Amino acid sequence: MRIGRFTFRKLKQRGNAILLNSLHLLLVPALNFLLYILVVRLYGPTVWGSLVGLLLAVNLAVHFTAWGNKQFLLRNFSLDPQMIRANWQEAFFTRLPLLAVPAIIFLLFYAPAIAGWMILWLCVQHLFHSFEVFVVYQKRFIPAILADVAGFIILAAGIYFFPFVMEKPAFSGLFTLSFALKALIMAVTFYMVAFRPLKMHFNFNYFKNAFPFFLLGLVGLLQEKIDLYLMALIGTDEGLGKYHVLISALALLKSGSVFLLMPYIRNVYRLPSSSLRMLARRLSGAGVVIILSGVLAMSWLMPRLFHFDFDWWVYGIGGLYALPHYYYLVLTYKIFRQKNEKVIVTIGLAATIFNTILSLLLIPELGFKGALLATAAAEWLILGIIFWWDKKTA
Fold first, then answer.
1. Closest CA to 228 of 356, 44, 115, 39
2. Is 0.85 topped by the overall pTM?
3. Are 186 and 131 in contact (CB under 8 A)?
4. Nearest Cα to Cα of residue 294 among 337, 339, 248
5. pLDDT (tens digit, 9 = 90+) per residue, 80-97?
6. Separation in Å, CA 173 to CA 59, 113, 140, 177
């Protein structure tokens, strides 16, 4: 009977962890989408499009300064639990000089008033993301959820009550304040494990050791966001504002594959190839239902929430963009199981280059619709390559 109670308790704890992790993963894009609704309804897509470039620039800089630390440290924590604090502090202090690189770029390409706030924004967001490894490793999802909600309240209140924050310097200052609060909550939560005692130590071998994780993350980021970066470079502010909202909604539909697969993650690394293909087909079937329902809901909500009157085929292409991930996600884990991370990087690079070329051709002619077509085509290219690789290595 004790064994039964113990097993039930362990299953309940694991179920709670999965539920809280799912909520944590879903919360950030959901809160961001609420923010987009607020901004576009109050100020319009053109104003939002003029500010999206700041978000893209800072987020890319944060990925650079992170240098793969989350996945690298998760591996190190598992291999040597006694050295968690030392490994975290070493990675934290070693990465600090990287902040100078995007800071210089901001100063070169933005007005001083904007660049100054962007540098502060970068620093506090960098600090906030440095604690993410503890959230995952210790399964401390509730403080992270509270931090995300608190940061959202700051942003939403500033945007609603103070219209002047839609100017670039004030907008950057608002995001700086939001991430400063989030970083403070994380620092207080993990103070003992991260800073007590504090020893400043640099190990520049870190950059070499963590580079595979950095490269894998960078390729994934560019694969997911290259369309937005190109829209920011060669599109209009109005087109970028509309596209950012549209692709964010579609990304929520696409992420449904992750939540469907999450309960089976432990088994994915043990299942034979035939079972993985069957699981991929079942996820794809569920994906068709989810995406059809989601696209229909979007076609009803977009005109009412944002006053966006998209053509029907835009929603169709959007559904085609979201669908391939439901199949190839499972096979991606199979490639990781085979320790073929280089294959994932190669596929991601191929998709990014393909998307870039197609976007450069289509955006000048079709605007954000061209970016959507290129991104959807890139997703099907990924599916085709992974499907071919799976057959080849069967």
1. 356
2. yes
3. yes
4. 248
5. 888 999 999 999 999 999
6. 15, 10, 28, 6
